[in-house]
Amino acid sequence: MSLDSLLLSALAPWRGSPAWWVAFSGGLDSTVLLHLLARLADQHELPPVRAIHVHHGLQPAGDDWPAHCQAVCDGLDVPLQVVRVKVAPGASLERAAREARYEAFSACLGEDEVLLTGQHRDDQAETVLFRLLRGAGVRGLAAMPVERPLGLGRLVRPLLGASRAEIEAYARRNALRWVEDPSNRNHDYSRNFLRREVMPLLQQRWPQTVSSMARAAAHMAEAQQLLDELAQQDLSAANTASDFEWLRLPSLALSPLRSLTPARQRNALRHWLADFTLAPDENHWAGWASLLDARPDATPRWRLVGGELQRSGDRIWWLPNGWLEPGFEPIDWSDPSTGLVLPGNGTLRGEGAPPAGKLQIRYRRGGEVLLVPGRGRRDLKRLLNEAGVPALVRGRLPLLYRDDELIAVANLPQLSEGGFALYWCVPEF
Ligand SMILES: Nc1ncnc2c1ncn2[C@@H]1O[C@H](COP(=O)(O)OP(=O)(O)OP(=O)(O)O)[C@@H](O)[C@H]1O
């Protein structure tokens, strides 16, 4: 199949999109992609083609690329947007640059617009091999998807079916000029070692290496899809509403998960956690066993990147890092007929006739006693236990004091004196 027809068929599902943006680094692959599209746009009715170049400002050689990209785009009559990004220095400059780049891509995409990047089949095969050598699982070995959501639109890799040789041949035939990223040669040594040393050796012995590996990636992508469907089924039984929906924290019931095999438990949990944190690595799953096997009165926790899972009763809860910050100061509530902003802890409003006296919101320190309508003075801890309030919320739970006497607990109207109930809107993280 020629590159023209390969590209047209890969992009057929996106012909109705309002715009196609080529992610144009100035390198060989995206230069070929841009040239192909500009040519095809003359012969076919395609969405408007535009280009975006992200300037990272990380190396002197890169300073010339925006001008080079502009010249190429002018020649092809394609509008170019150059976006300068600030890359936060950190452990991995390459990863930070990638994140900044994708943020810029995502910001430029309007609704249903498509961003096209230049990766090809050889890139896909190298990704598979690289990840295999790091012990990746099914998701990792599925390598780069042909398309995925990005911002308001989609990211599509229409050249994944083309080989590097075809792309190079096209560039030669059309006398294209492109930039070489000098850091490509050293910044990713292992990747380059695979590209230059290992892949050619494999291809000598097995000429189909690249397409076989790309096919294996496609099998993995399908297997991953089945695993995701299984996870969704398994989670639907566990993703039931809790009595504490107002906490606005993700939570799951444990009993439906407990009835699954350990592999299905991990699959379901991996799927659920993907929205909040990085997948736990294989050595890390002991944390899950400790949540499952804990005694009912224990409050085990499993620390993960960006937060932790805690168990309370028969549920597990995801607590983002900010949630766990302790220590809130008491705050006066001089006019309980209006709402109250609790610094770092959401907002509060009252319902019913406000009690007379000096009102103050405080937080638990232990040993509090509450005056319960019709029941007299009761130990707060016991009352919270009776109401099944998860331990993980107790440090944040606003308590209403009148002249140093605890008279109400937020979101537990049954624990309020004289019909004045407190409604607490928990902060979002
Ligand atoms: N600075 C950038 N600005 C715009 N798009 C980029 C940029 N860097 C990479 N891309 C896009 O991401 C794809 C993959 O990036 P990668 O770093 O693997 O490629 P490259 O070697 O820099 O460029 P190419 O793939 O065009 O030869 C590129 O094909 C291109 O579409």
TrEMBL record:
EC number(s) stated in the UniProt entry for this protein: 6.3.4.19
A Pfam family: ATP_bind_3
InterPro entries to which the protein is assigned, alphabetical: Lysidine-tRNA-synth_C, Rossmann-like_a/b/a_fold, TilS/TtcA_N, tRNA_Ile_lys_synt, tRNA_Ile_lys_synt_N, tRNA_Ile_lys_synt_subst-bd
Intracellular or extracellular location(s): Cytoplasm
Keyword match Calcium: no
UniProt cross-references to Gene3D superfamilies, sorted A to Z: 1.20.59.20, HUPs
Lysidine-tRNA(Ile) synthetase C-terminal domain sequence ranges: 359-424
Chain residues that bind ATP: 25-30
Family: Belongs to the tRNA(Ile)-lysidine synthase family.
HAMAP family for the chain: tRNA_Ile_lys_synt
Primary role: Ligates lysine onto the cytidine present at position 34 of the AUA codon-specific tRNA(Ile) that contains the anticodon CAU, in an ATP-dependent manner. Cytidine is converted to lysidine, thus changing the amino acid specificity of the tRNA from methionine to isoleucine.
Name recorded for this polypeptide: tRNA(Ile)-lysidine synthase
Taxonomic lineage of the native organism: Bacteria, Pseudomonadati, Pseudomonadota, Gammaproteobacteria, Pseudomonadales
